[in-house]
Amino acid sequence: MSVTSETLAPPAALRPLAWLRKNLFSNWFNALLTIFSLVFLYFALVSIVRWVFFTADWSPVTIAPLLFLIGQYPRDQLWRPALSMLMCVFLIGLSWAIWERYVKAFAIFLGVLLGVLALIPLETPTITLGVRAVFLACPVLIYLGFWIGRRLEVKGKYIVTLWLLASVLITLVLLPGIRSIPGLPAVPTTAWGGLLVTLLLAVGGIVLSFPIGVLLALGRRSSLPVVKLFSILFIEVVRGVPLVTILFMFSIILALFLPAESRIDRLLRALIAMVVFSAAYTAENVRGGLQAIPEGQVEAAKALGLSSFHITFFIVLPQALRLVIPNIVGQFISLFKDTTLVVIVGINDLLGIGNAVLNLRPEFVRLQMEVYLFIAIIFWIFSYFMSYASLELEKALGVGER
Amino acid sequence: MSIRTPTRNHQEIPLWRDERVLNAAAQIVSTVVIVGLLYWGIANFLEITRQRGMPLTYGFLDDPAGFPITESYIPYTPTMSFGRAFTVGLINTLVVSVVGILLSTPLGLFVALARLSTNWLVNKIALAYIEFHRNIPLLVLLFLWYFGVFTRLPSARDSLTLPGPIFVNQRGLYLTWPRLTETGGIFVAFLVIGVILAVVAWIVLRRIRETQGRETYFGRISLAILILFPLIGWFVSGSEPLRLDEPSLQGFNFRGGLRMSPEFSALVIGLTTYTAAFIAEVFRAGILAVRKGQVEAARALGLKNNQVLGMIVIPQALRVVIPPLISQYLNLTKNSSLALIIGYQELFAIGKVTINQAGRAVPVFLMVMATYLLLSLLTSWLLNIYNKRVQFIER
Asked: Inter-chain contact B341–A243, Cβ cutoff 8 Å?
């Protein structure tokens, strides 16, 4: 047998007709499938378009856009959520400059969306000129952040620090307010709602659960039997029961285990439940990473005379965490979706606001499809961009390729 | 050959750097902290329960429940006990989970195959299905199915007719369902015997084939048994051991057939379509995990297509598929607790009503959580046994 020495030419891009032939009509069965799918798609699209543009009544969604964003937050204190949003979009712009691959698509989409929202004519009195100005400022700030980030070549760790500072400022000072400061009257969390609460629970849940999850994962692999036993118990019990039961436990039962006079904020109780739930799953993800680190790393570190604390936190953990970042992002997506369960304990997150809007007027009673579909689309967009980022991350880290 | 281990003088190591001392200290400190927290919590709890007068006992389980349950697979009336209501809830959870698992597995496989199709259009439709379901919270999907679809269906008079026939209206789904007639018992007996014999024949003949190397036609023989026995049963039992019970409109409502309530239908459809998207990804990963070379090598050895699939691809794919499949099944079971918000009364919903009725939050809650935990552990234990059997035996 002779071996040809010439290298093969790269496959030429198929012309449209050839592409059709190869991908849709390669044999009779495929052709049949294609035709069947086309008929199915045609009827599905026609009925969807007809429903969206003619049958559906979108008035519950358009009547109160602010309600979906921030819930019942006092309208005379609107500048506080507005400032929070502006801070966040600026940071998104900065992040775009550093992590272009993951954030760019979302940043551009968000800028365009908010810009469009600022300009579309909606006949609702709640969308004042000021609100429109804030929306319009968002794309500008995103780009400004991007520009500054590029110019100054800000390092990633500073942006992470800025994000943490901003979250602390927003969640502990700006939104709840401080009684002693005259310009910042306290706003109880019962007035918070909508997307604000959803994002707060999701981000708070994942950020706060992360250190606990890492400690639990280390605890589960620990050589100390007591620590190991308690870690396993915690992880397996939490993972074995539905999130609803944990949410319910923390919002109702927890009060019975604390001194009678202590009261914990309702939103905080839900957040604690999310953290507890998420920590168990983080722990299992991190454990997967820890198991993937070869024993030789630990042995080498021991040979160099490092203490077990140093080995864990400077040798094993950094490598393990890097391996499990995609899994953690995946877990974040599911936690983001799971925040909807807080409606069961009576918190007005995005879904809860949807239910509230349906009760706003008697004629809205039959419009559940429209409202829930709108909420579904919001969740879909956020989750889609996160899974997109996660896929890019997997590619960048070369997971599954090594 | 002996190696002398370097001995070290223990006096040299300060206490705070001696690993053994540190370990012991860590153990004691963590034990004290955890036990202390538990003790503090329980002490508070006992104090509160003493003040309010609701002790941690399970005597209330025998008290009459007093609330109705719309769907029950065992006889239940509000005069029956809380314990009975709890059992009803547990059975409802099990039914939803089992039905969901049975439906979502083939749907997931179907979507996975569509996703792997070389046909561009079919591939993209499957991708759209998966992406749609994976990025929307299950609760929102359940709301969409229940409030968006099932509560908006026409009344019984104008109900939609799907092939089957299946009638769909506000009162739920009415399926045409085979029911046993008086002679049905004989047919069922033959069917069961046929299945058992077919399995036994398969195992025994296959063992002979594998140990002695001579063709025993185990597949064909057991298939023949599987078909022949029920057929004989059909004729022995006279005519019609099974009759199709078709629902029909009588007055304002349907009679006959198998009725599924709107709550149950919405829950099962929501759970099934949602879980199927995840299961499809599991199957796809499993099928892709079997290297192309395996199939090519099998072909080169002269195996037929069905042999390649049955002896090379599926056994290897199963190894990859089963662990994540187990966790999807467990997720489905746990997710069935969301039924509460659309009014299907399963374990969690009944637990919640019981708390309101009996005023015993903690004991009821412990029971509900323990039951879910037990279900999870039991399922994963059973499936892990199966998993062990299909995994590689490493040397």
From this structure: no
Which residue is associated with the tokens 């929070």?
A84
**Which of A187, A205, A226 is the C-terminal boundary of a domain?**
A187
Distance between CA atoms of residues B329 and B323, nearest Å: 10
Of the candidates A37, A229, A47, A1, which has an alpha carbon nearest to the alpha carbon of residue B27? A229
Evaluate whether B339 touches B270 at the Cβ level (below 8 Å): no
A271 contact B CB<8A: no
Contact residues on chain A for B136, CB-CB shorter than 8 A: 337, 376, 379-380, 383
Query: Which of B45, B151, B334 faces A242 most closely, judged by CB atoms?
Result: B334
Tokens 């058992």 sit at which residue? B196
Is A48 in CB contact (< 8 Å) with chain B?
no
Phi, psi of B46 (to 5 degrees): -65, -40
Distance CA A200, CA A281 (A): 19
Residues A154, A203, single domain; the answer is no
A166 contacts A195 by C-beta, under 8 angstroms:
no
| DSSP for residue B260 | E
Find chain A residues with C-beta within 8 A of B139's C-beta: 340-341, 343, 351
At B168, phi and psi to the nearest 5?
Answer: -120, 125
* A341 in contact with B, Cβ within 8 Å: yes
Mean pLDDT of A117-140: 83
One DSSP character per residue, B342-393 reads GT---HHHHHHHHHHHH--HHHHHHHHHHHHHHHHHHHHHHHHHHHHHHS--
Distance of CA B8 to the CA centre of its chain: 58
Which tens digit of pLDDT belongs to each residue from B69-80?
A: 888 888 888 888
The answer to whether the beta carbons of residues B174 and B162 sit under 8 Å apart is: no
The C-alpha atoms of residue B261 and residue B85 are separated, in whole angstroms, by 19
Same domain, A166 and A233: no
A82 is written with which tokens? 């507005």
State phi, psi for A31 to the nearest 5 degrees.
-60, -45
Q: pLDDT, tens digit, for every residue of A283-333?
A: 999 998 898 888 899 999 999 988 888 898 999 998 888 888 888 888 889
Amino acid at A6: E
* A218 within a domain of the structure (yes/no): yes
**Which chain A residues have a beta carbon less than 8 Å from that of B134?**
383, 387
Question: Which of B129, B369, B376, B377 should one mutate to test binding to chain A, selecting the residue with the greatest count of A CBs within 10 A?
Answer: B369
**B334 inside 8 A of chain A by CB:** yes
* Partner-chain residue, chosen from B48, B119, B335, that has the shortest CB–CB distance to A256: B48
Q: Domain limits at A316? A: 191-402
Residue A63 confidence class, pLDDT cut points 50, 70, 90: confident
C-alpha span between A50 and A45 (Å, rounded): 8
* pLDDT for the residue A402: 42
> For chain A, what is the domain count?
2
Which chain A residue is nearest to residue B361, measuring alpha carbons?
Answer: A253
Query: For residue B243, what are the β-bridge partners?
Result: B179
Q: Report the pLDDT value the prediction gives residue B229, as an integer from 0 to 100.
A: 84
Q: What is the CATH number of domain B82-176+246-390?
A: 1.10.3720.10
- Between strands B160-162 and B166-169, the pairing is antiparallel
User: For chain A, give me the number of helices (H) and strands (E)?
Assistant: 17, 0
* Residue A59 included in any domain: no
Tell me the two tokens of residue B393.
């035996």
B23 and chain A in contact, CB less than 8 A: yes
Q: Which residues contact A118 (CB under 8 A, 6 or more apart)?
A: A132, A133, A134, A135, A136, A138
Q: Which residues of A touch B341 (CB under 8 A)?
A: 343-344
DSSP one-letter code for A9? P
